Automatic annotation (TrEMBL):
Keywords: Cell membrane, G-protein coupled receptor, Glycoprotein, Membrane, Receptor, Transducer, Transmembrane, Transmembrane helix. It comes from Coregonus suidteri. It is found in: Cell membrane. This is G-protein coupled receptors family 1 profile domain-containing protein. It comes from the Eukaryota. It is a multi-pass membrane protein.
Amino acid sequence: MNTSSVAVATGVSNATLEMLVSPVMTVAVPIIYLSVFVCSTPCNLLSLVALLNIHYKRHTPTSVLAINLSLADLLYSAFLPLQVLYHLWGNDWPWGAALCGLTTTALHCNLHCSVLTTCAIALERYCGVVHPLRTKHWRTARRAAIACVLIWAFVLITQTPLLRRDLTLRVVELDITTCFDVLPRALFSHQSVSYLYFLVILLMFYVLPLAVLVSCYVAVARGLHRSLPTAAESSGDKREVLSRRRAQTTVALATLCFVVCYLPTITLHGLHLIYHSQGKSLYKYYKLVLSINSLNCCFDPFVYYFASREFRRALRRALGRCVPLGEGEEVGNSELVSMTGELRASIGHS
């Protein structure tokens, strides 16, 4: 990389220099990113194949949203190797400003798209379980596809400041070129603008999605809990009861994954903004929880597995009998159960 064309950072504080050489940044973060890449890439590839197989047979809004989520997770993982090498090499970016901007934007876009798509799936599940008849007319695959396009468009718009500027900066004291770890002064017109931008990002892609997810999944869990006695009394179908209990487990798992992955990021993001305004920094810890945040890419395929009988069968067709079926499921059973875990029509009419 030609370092003569890279802007040089001036007035770099000792705290920033210590942060750039910290083991948290150069050891812990790349190890987590590498683990996420190794785990999530094959899992999401298999998930995408299974989801496309399901969508080919039956077009549902959940299958469209799940495919979009799987694509976002897969694209996020695809850019992780560059981040792993960057941090392992002491936060030194050798591939130029263009690739730095592309990688940073891609990572943020796919991460934020994953969050919003997860919210869309939660809303679809909420409508399917709590208000199945009232919302049936607009819960279509076509409208889910439109929602995915709008999500990507919105996320790209929020990344406009990053697309317009050179995000690399030369730190002479350490003889390294950073990529978005030391912000160029020209990125924002004023420091207050940068605080406002990152505060909006925090609210739009972390705080509000977490509130939506928890609210939806609590409502879904209550709806499923109320439906269990009804299903058992009305039909005596053990598989019906097991289906709802699996759906309850899925709801709890999805909520737990999101809280574990995103709550630390929300907390550290907010604290970092407060500390930074006081001349202090929690950036290395923010980067650590941001890497932990990416573990969500590894959890999503397992949520699909526990949530959908169709998904398990699609994996079984692709991988053979090494993929176990759930309790009460038969290999020859052709019944299709939606990933939403929504109530059957008989219960919805009761």
